[in-house]
Write a structure and sequence with these properties.
Blueprint: H1 6-18, H2 22-47, H3 49-54, H4 57-70, H5 82-119, E1 130-133, H6 138-149, E2 157-162, H7 166-176, E3 184-189, H8 195-198, E4 208-211, H9 219-232, E5 240-244, H10 250-257, E6 261-265, H11 266-279, H12 283-291, E7 297-302, H13 311-314, E8 321-328, E9 331-334, E10 347-352, E11 384-388, H14 394-404, E12 409-414, E13 430-435, H15 442-446, E14 455-458, H16 466-487, E15 492-497, H17 502-506, E16 513-516, H18 517-530, H19 534-541, E17 547-553, E18 564-565, H20 566-574, E19 579-584, E20 597-599, E21 606-607, E22 614-620
Parallel strand pairs: 1-2, 1-4, 2-3, 4-5, 5-6, 11-12, 11-14, 12-13, 14-15, 15-16
Antiparallel strand pairs: 7-10, 8-9, 8-10, 17-22, 18-21, 19-20, 19-22
Helix pairs in contact: 2-4, 2-5, 4-5, 6-18, 9-10, 11-14
Transmembrane segments: 21-47, 82-107
Domain RCK C-terminal: 283-366
InterPro entries: CASTOR/POLLUX/SYM8-like, CASTOR/POLLUX/SYM8_dom, NAD(P)-bd_dom_sf, RCK_C, RCK_C_sf
Length: 621
């Protein structure tokens, strides 16, 4: 290959200079202006010395030439010899080119700058802010909950980094979240897996980080890659919370994230909530109420005044908070034995509307002995459960059901999904049958003989998009409700959906529980962002080992129709080895947003519970 010529080298140098952007272009225009002014001034001094002398010599000529270059219109007022006027005219013509080019360069430079600002590529300069990496429908739930949690705080900031247009993200947040009050939301465009883009979020000063699973195929691969990028970056590492869609990827995610990451198993959490809701109507409503920031929340607080008391004695200790368990040396115990002594270093786990409302009652409230009913818990016998539709977490749901079911229970799966026919050989308590069925077909549903089942679970079919799957689920629920009404049958119906907006549409079906799986995970991520220790509490609640949430008939605890205080309900539950956390009114079961659930009521306020009402307790199954 031949050596580059001088002209090629010069052209290469010029191209590189011009490619440096607006500043380089302005520099070239300035150099051309200086050259033009110097050339015209030199010609004036040489060709028209008399005119130069009449205009104050060298300094005056340079000044006149500069003015004609910057303001070409001044040439109209020039006077002198013809060569002098011609030279000034040349300076004005050159000025027209230079000024026009300068205006164009500045306009393009400003346009590029505005475009960069629009894309959100500037660095976030905040302290103690919450960072969300990635984008999915869960971002709306998380932002909405954090806005509620920080409603009383000034200077709260949520920073979002996603591979989306900044304006599109802001528009979507305005549509789905609305006003954010005192909380500022900052959006930046970038890829969370790129270290340079992560640097935009000022992670060294962040309060916590949330990694979202993107929508689409293999979302866990994206989450794990983001966790790797976070772990390998230099500087401080704030606490990280992430959701993993598949249980099989949890080990890889723990290895990628390191010790600063807490992982939420989306499959496991949603599956357990669906199972618990199918067994006890209202469980999902109670869990959603505990997970969001608009109602009762879970707090952990050390209280030396309760040291030396037993757990049972401490249950009514707070006027506006409900004790539910203890945290001792990092280990969570919900509804421990009532004779468990509270030690000085223990943290009390409680439900309260706000941490400012947690204070000891002035004297322990007295229970109404004449209103307490002594009834033994009714043991659960074998039951028949029907699962309609199928998806990737179906096998996990069946295994969770097996852990709760009494020996001899039967589970039938009705679906035309190809993956619903195998993998049930290791079950202990359940006998599984698989039936081919189009769950959207009314006649196919009637042929199942629904009246023999105690529980029906309607899953979201993963062969369709989330929106289409929710539509098919709604159709199935409507058919089930109509069949119930026509035949006079009664069985609990629990449904899984993706979109929270479909809950209002599904209310017409009067399903016993509707689990919005994506919303549940979003709420849980928001809670853990505020307090990572709550992971152990919710993990305990969703586990079949230990105590869980049960709405149970109120008549097993207190006399129907008698005015009682919640302290009486607490005492009635304590005598059964349970912890009462609220109640549910049957006449409000279809009223959003709480659907009749009242958590953490005031200990002294009187109310009545009727035959169809429930007491919500923590108890072992």
């Amino acid at each position: 290959m031949s050596r580059p010529t001088r002209q090629e080298r010069l052209r290469y140098w010029f191209d590189n200079t011009m490619s440096r952007g607006t500043v380089a272009l302005i520099g070239w225009l300035a150099a051309i202006s200086v050259g033009l002014i110097a050339l015209v001034a030199a010609l004036v001094l040489w060709l028209t010395p008399d005119d130069a002398a009449g205009n104050h010599g060298v300094a005056g000529v340079l000044w006149m030439t500069l003015m004609r270059t910057l303001s070409p219109g001044k040439v109209a007022s020039d006077s002198g010899s013809a060569p002098f006027i011609a030279l000034m005219f040349v300076a004005s013509l050159g000025g027209l080119f230079i000024v026009s080019a300068l205006v164009g360069v500045l306009a393009n430079g400003l346009k590029d700058k505005f475009e960069q600002l629009r894309k959100g590529r500037s660095r976030v300069i905040e302290n103690r802010h919450t960072v969300i990496l990635g984008w999915s429908d869960q971002v709306f739930t998380i932002v909405k909950e954090l806005v509620q949690a920080h409603a009383s705080q000034r200077g709260s900031v949520i920073a979002i980094l996603a591979d989306m247009d900044k304006i599109a993200m802001e528009d979507a947040l305005r549509t789905h979240v609305g006003g954010t009050g005192r909380t500022k939301v900052v959006c930046r465009t970038g890829r969370p897996v790129e270290p340079a883009d992560l640097d935009l979020m000022n992670l060294d000063s962040a309060r916590s980080v949330v990694v979202l699973s993107p929508q689409g195929d293999d979302p866990d691969a994206h989450v794990i890659k983001t966790l790797l990028a976070l772990d390998k970056r230099d500087g401080d590492h704030p606490p990280v919370v992430a959701a993993i869609a598949s249980t099989a990827n949890m080990a890889a995610a723990r290895l990628a994230g390191g010790p600063h990451v807490h992982l939420v198993d989306s499959d496991d959490t949603a599956s357990r909530l669906i199972v618990q809701s199918s067994r006890q109507s209202g469980t999902s409503v109670v869990c959603m109420d505990l997970l969001d920031f608009s109602g009762g929340e879970i707090y952990l607080r050390a209280d030396p005044d309760l040291a030396g008391l037993t757990y049972g004695q401490a249950l009514p200790a707070y006027q506006s908070a409900t004790v539910v368990g203890l945290r001792r040396r990092g280990r969570v115990m919900l509804n421990p034995p009532t004779d468990t002594a509270i030690e000085a270093g223990d943290e009390i786990i409680m439900i309260a509307q706000d941490d400012s409302m947690i204070h000891l009652a002035e004297g322990m409230p007295k229970a109404q002995e004449d209103a307490i009913v002594s009834a033994e818990p009714v043991p659960q016998g074998p039951v028949r459960t029907l699962v309609l539709n199928w998806n990737g977490r179906g096998h996990h749901i069946i295994r969770c059901l097996d852990g709760y079911a009494a020996p001899g229970s039967v589970l039938d799966i009705a679906s035309d999904h190809p993956d619903a026919a195998a993998g049930f050989d290791d079950l202990v308590n359940l006998r599984v049958n698989v039936k081919e069925c189009d769950t959207a077909d009314r006649y196919a549903l009637e042929a199942l003989g629904l009246g023999v089942y105690q529980h029906v679970i309607v899953l979201s079919d993963d062969r369709y998009s989330p929106a289409h799957a929710d539509t098919r689920t709604l159709m199935t629920l409507l058919q089930l409700r109509d069949i119930q009404t026509t035949l006079g049958e009664r069985y609990s119906i629990v449904s899984e959906m993706h979109d929270e907006n479909n809950r209002s549409l599904a209310e017409v079906t009067r399903a016993d529980d509707i689990v919005i799986s994506d919303t549940v995970i979003g709420l849980l991520l928001a809670q853990l962002t505020e307090n990572r220790h709550l992971a152990d509490v919710f993990g305990y609640l969703f586990d079949s080992k230990g105590s869980e949430i049960y709405p149970r008939p109120a008549g097993e605890y207190v006399r129907a129709g008698v005015p009682i205080s919640f302290a009486t309900v607490i005492e009635a539950a304590r005598r059964r080895g349970e912890t009462a956390i609220g109640y549910r009114l049957a006449d409000r079961i279809n009223e959003a947003p709480h659907f009749g659930v009242v958590l953490n009521p005031d200990k002294s306020r009187l109310f009545r519970l009727g035959p169809g009402d429930s007491v919500i307790v923590l108890a072992e199954h």
